Records
---
Amino acid sequence: MKTEGWHVVAIDLERSPKSAWPLPAVRAMAQRGLGGVPPTALVLAGIVSVQIGAALAKQLFTATGAAGAVSLRLFFAGIVLLIFWRSALRIDRRALPVVLGYGAVLALMNLSFYESIDRIPLGMAVTIEFLGPLAVALAGSRRWIDPLWALLAGAGVVLLTRAAGPVMWSGVLLALAAAVCWAGYILLSAALGERTSGGGGLALAMAFGGLLMAPVGIADAGAALLEPSVLAAGFGVAMLSSVLPYSAELEALRRIPARVFGVLMSLEPAAAALAGLVVLGQIMNLAQWAGVTCVVAASIGATRMSKRG
C-alpha cells in the first residue's frame, strides 16, 4: 500500500523553510545518510518497504485481525511522527477540520486495505486500490488519450479477477473502497499541505486515525494487542509501512520533480505482487500478472502526460 504523506510533502517542500523542520541534528544525520543515495533508489526502496510492511501485517492477522494490525500501525507511526515533528505541531484552528478528516480517511483507507488483503492476494488488492490515484489523475482531463488509460486500467482489473480458483468478491469490494479512500486522501492532502507546514499536520492526523481505530482494534484483538511479540511486529509494520518510506520519499522529493516521482510510484502494484509471491507465497496466474501490467502502464501513461496538453 502507498505510504502516507508524499502528496503533502511535495507541497510543503516548495514553501517551508528548512529552519522550520524539526530535530536539526537528526535531520542533518538523515540527510548525510540519504544524500548519497540516488533519489530513484530512495523511491524504489520506499516502495519495497511499504509492501514488505503490508506482507508482515498480513502475517499479524492471525493474532490481531486486520483491525488490530491497523491499530498498531497507526498507533506506533503516530507516536514516532509526533516525536519527530513535535516542533511543527501547532496548527491554525481553521486547519483542524482538515486534519481530523485526513486522519479519518487515513484510518478507513488502511482498514479497508487490510481487510482486503485478508481475503485476496496482496498484488491484486494493491493494484485495485491504485485505481484511486489513477482516477484522480484522470478526473477533469480533456486529453484525447485519457480514456485509453482508463480502459487499460479497467481491462487490468478484469484480468486480475481471472483467478485459477474462486475470487472472494468481498475482498475486491474492500480494495475498491480503499481506492475511493485513497482518492479522498489525495484531495485532502492538498488542503492539508496548504494549511499546515512540515509534517505536523500529518503527524496529528496519523495520531487521530490511531485513536479512531483503537476501539475497533481492541474489540477485534483484545489482549493479544499487548503481547510483546505482537507489539514488536506492529512497530515493525509501522516503521516499514509509514516511517521509513516516508523519510526516504521526503529526501527523494527534494531532488526529483513530483511528476517523475509519480511515475516511479506507479510501479507499486508490481512490487506488491512480487512481495506477495516472495514473502507470502501468493502465486498469481499469467492473466493476473497481465492485469497488474495494464494498471501499471495506465498509471505511468497518465502520470507522464499529466503536464502535457
Note: The chain has a mean pLDDT of 82.
---
Amino acid sequence: MTSTAQPAGTEGRKAQPDHLGHVIFITAAAAMGGFLFGYDSSVINGAVEAIRHRYDVGSAGLAQVIAIALIGCAIGAATAGRIADRIGRIRVMQIAAVLFTVSAVGSALPFAIWDLAIWRIVGGFGIGMASVIGPAYIAEVAPPAYRGRLGSFQQGAIVIGIAVSQLVNWGILNLADGDQRGVIAGLEAWQWMLGVMVVPAVLYGLLSFAIPESPRFLISVGRHDKAKEVLGEVEGHGVDLDLRVNEIEQAMRREHKSSFKDLLGSKAGFLPIVWVGIGLSVFQQLVGINVAFYYSSTLWQSVGIDPSSSFFYSFTTSIINIIGTVIAMIFVDKVGRRPLALVGSAGMAIALALEAWAFSAKTAGGTLPHAQGVVALIAAHGFVLFFALSWGVVVWVFLGEMFPNKIRAAALGVAASAQWIANWAITATFPSLSEWNLSGTYVIYMIFALLSIPFVLKFVKETKGKALEEMG
C-alpha cells in the first residue's frame, strides 16, 4: 500500500466542527480493526490450560498452537497493502471482518488440536490485515491538522481490545464456577471465550459498510467525483476540493515505491538504518511482553493462584497497559522518543529482575511464599506499565519516522516482519522454557531489556521534531 504523504499547503487546515464528529465516527469504525487485533491476540490467554487438558497436549505442542497465529499475522500484514491498492481499503476491512468471524466460530468448535491450529492461522490473517489497513485508512481520511490524534485511535483500540478480552474471559470463567472446562449452554467455558469474538467481528463488518472509501484510493482508480464528495465530508465543503484532489495526485506521483533491493548496502547486507529498525523491532519482543498477554493466566496458576484470581490479574495488567499507552501518547512528542525508550528499558529490566527473584522461590508444591507472590504481582504490573509507556508505542513511532522517504515502505515491511518473527520465537518457547526454569526464563528477558539500553544510546537517533524529509 502506498504511504500517505501530507500534501503541500494542507498544514494547519482543519475540518469544520460540524464535520469533525463525522470524521471521529469514521476513525473509530476503522479502529475496530485494531480492537479485534488486540482482542484476538490476547483472548487465547484464557483458554491455554483448558486446551492443554482437553487435547492432552504437551508444552511444546501447545506453544505451537498458540504461536501459529503469528504465521497468519505475517502473511496477512505482508499482503494487505497490495490487496488494498487493488480492491480498496474498505474491501480489505470486510475481508478481515470475515476472517475474524470465521476464526472465532471455528476456534470455538474445534474437533481436534490441528483443527484449532488452522482456525488460529485464519484469525492471524485477520490480525495481520487489521494491523496494516487501519492505520493506513485513518491517515488517508483524517484532516491533516487532526491526523496525529486520530491516528492514535488504532493503538488505543488495540490495548482496549486486549483489556476487554481479559474482562470477558474473567466473566465467562465466573459463570462456569471458576472451571475453564465448565459447561455453559452445552459448550465449555474456553470455547465461549474464543467464540464471543464473533460479536465485535460482525460489528466491524457492519461498520465498514457505513464509512466511505479512502479518497486516495478513489483518486488512484479515477473516481475523482466520489473522492471530492468524501473530501467534502471529512474536511468541510469550504475547502477547494479540486485543489485538494490535485494535491493528492501530485503527492502520489512524487512517491517512490521502494523495493527490497533498495534496502541493500555494500557490506552488511542491509543498509545500517534498516538494521537499526530491525533491532528496535526485535528488542521490543525479546523482553517477553507477549508472555504477559498470551500466558499470564497460565503463569499465575503455575505458582498456585486459583484460576479466577489469575484471570482477574490478567485483566488488571491489561488496564495497566492502557494507562501506560496513554502516558506514552502524552509524552512522546514532549520529551522525545529516545528518553521514553531508555526509561522503559531500565524500568522493564528492574521489574523482570524482581520477577526472576520471586519465581526462584517457587516451592516443590508449585506455589510462591506470600512475600514473593506479592513482589511477583507488583513486578508483573510494573513490567507491563514500563513497556506500554515506552517500547509499546515508541517503536512504531520510530519505524514510521526514521527511514528515508525512498525506502520507508520497504524498510517498514522488513522491520515489521522481524517483529512478527521475534514475537513467534518468544511465544513458541515460553512454555518449554518455563518448565525448564521459570526464574531463568525471566533472567533471559531481563538481559534483553538491559541490552536494549546501549543499543538505543549508540544506534538510535532522536526523530522528535524532524521532518520526514530530514531522515537519512
Note: Strands lie at 183-184, 187-188.
---
Amino acid sequence: MPRSILVPHDGSSSAQTALRYAIETFPDARIVLFHAIDPFEVTPGEEQLPPLTDEWLEDQRSSTTALFEDARASLEVDEVTIETETGVGSPAQTIVAAVEETDADQIVMGSRGKSGAPGLRMGSTAELVVKRADVPVTVVR
C-alpha cells in the first residue's frame, strides 16, 4: 500500500473526485494536496499574461489557500489530515517534481482540469504526468 499520495488540485470537479478517491481508497496514507501555480495561464477576459510580480505571486498563493479550504470543506470526512503544498511552473512538470519534494510514492489525479475540453477522456496535464512520473499514477474520472 502507498504510504504517501500526492493529489494535484486545480479547483475542478475532477480534481475533487480524485481527492475523495484517494482518501477513501488509501485511508492510512499521508495525503498531500498539491496545487501548481501556472505563471503562463491566461484566464478568461485577459488578453495577455499578467506581470509576474511579488504581488501577483501573493495573489496566487491566496487563491490557492482558498482552493485548499474549499476542497477540504466539501469533504465528508473530518478526521483526515491533509497536508498542502504548492509549486510554481508548468502544471505537469511541477506535479512530477513535487513527487520527489513531498516524498510521495503515488499520484492520484483527476482526468481533466478546469480548462479541459468536454468529451476528452484525459487532459493534457494528466497525460504528461502519466508519461513522466516515476511513481504509479491513478487517473480518476
Note: The radius of gyration is 15 Å.
---
Amino acid sequence: MTSTAQPPQSGARGAHPEHLGHVIFIAAAAAMGGFLFGYDSAVINGAVEAIRDRYEVGSAALAQVIAIALIGCAIGAATAGRIADRIGRIRCMQISAVLFTVSAVGSALPFALYDLAFWRVIGGFAIGMASVIGPAYIAEVSPAAYRGRLGSFQQAAIVIGIAISQLVNWGILNAADGDQRGKVMGLEAWQVMLGVMVIPAVIYGLLSFAIPESPRFLISASRDERAREVLREVEGDIDLDARVAEIEHAMKSEHKSTFKDLLGGTFFFKPIVWIGIGLSVFQQFVGINVAFYYSSTLWQSVGVDPTDSFLYSFTTSIINIIGTVIAMIFVDRIGRRPLALIGSVGMVIGLGLEAWAFSYDLVDGKLPATQGWVALIAAHVFVLFFALSWGVVVWVFLGEMFPNKLRAAALGVAAAAQWIANWAITASFPSLADWNLSMTYVIYTVFAALSIPFVLKFVKETKGKTLEEMG
C-alpha cells in the first residue's frame, strides 16, 4: 500500500468537537481488525494440549500446526497493500472478516489434523491483512491533530484481543469442568474456544459497512466528490479543494521504494536495513510469543492445574495491556532507545529467573513451591517489560528510522523478518521444552541480553526528528 506521508501544511488542522466522536468510532471500528489479530493469535493457547491428545501427535508435529498460521500471516501482510490499493481499504477489511469467520468455523469443526492446519493458515492470512490494513486506514482517515492517538487504537485492540481470548478460554474450560476435551454445547471445549471467534469476526464485518472508504483511495480512484464528503465528515469545516489537492500532490510526489533500493553495503543490504531486521528478530527471539501461544501448556507441564493455567494466561494478558499503556505514555517522553534498554534489562531478569526456576526437578509432578512462585512472578515480569518496551518501540522505530526513499520496502523486509522469527520460535518451542525447558529459557535470556549492546551500538534515537531528517 502506498505511504500515507503528506507534506507539512501551515496552520492547525483537526476535527471539530462535533466530528471527533464520529472519527473515534471510525478508528475503533477499523481497529476491530487489530482485536481479531490479537484474539486469533492467542486463542490457540487454550487448545494446544487437547489437540495433542485428540490427534495423538508429538511435539514437532503439534508445533507445525500451531506455527503454520504464521505462514498465512506473512502472505497476508505481503499482499494486503496491493489488494487494498486495487479494490479499496473497506473491501479489504470485509475480505479479512470473511476469512476470520471461515477460519473460526473450520478450526472448530476439523475432521483431521491437516485440515485444522489449513484453517489455521486461512486465519493467519486474515491476521496478516488486518496487521497492514488497520493502521494504514486509521492513518488515512484521522485528522493530523489526532493521528497519533487514534493510531494507537490498533495496538491497544491487539493486546485487548489477546486478553479477551484468554478470558473466554478460561470461562469455557470452567464450563467443561476443567477438561479441555470436555463437552460444551455438543462440542469439545477446545473446539468451542476456536469457534467463538465467529462473533467478533461477524461484528468486524458488519462495522466495515458502517464506516467510509479512505479519502486517499477515493481520490486515487477518481472519486473526488465522495472523498470531499468523507473529509467533511472527519475533518469538519476545512477548505476541501485545498485538502484534496494536498493529498493528490502527496500521492504524485511519493517515491515507491522497491527491493532494489535496499541493496548495497558490505552484506547485501544497506546497514540501516540490517538494523531494522535485527530489531525485528530480537523482538521475537526473546520468546514473547511462547507466553501467548503456549503458556497454558507451559504451566501444565510443571504441574499447574489446567484451570489455573488458563487463569494465569489471562493475568499475563492483563499485564501485557498495562505494559502497552505504559509504553504509549512514555515513548514520546523519554524516547525509544531508553525504553528499549529498560525493557531489555527487565526481560533479562524475568527470563533468567524463569530459567532458574525451571532448572529444578519436579516433585510429585510439580515444581517446588518456591520455584513455582518465582516462575509465575518472573513470567509476568518478563511480559510487563516486553510490553512497555520492545512490544511497542520496535514498531515505532521501524516506522521512523528508514530514509523516505527506502521506507516502504525496508519496512516490508523488516516485517517479513519478524514473521519468520516468530515462526522459528513458535515451531521450535515444544521440541526445545521436551529437551530441556530451563535451557530453552536460557537461550531466550541470552537474546534479551544481546539486545542491549545491539541497541547501544547500532540503534539511533528517532524521538523528535522528522521523517525527512532520517535521510
Note: Residues 407-458 form the longest helix (52 residues).
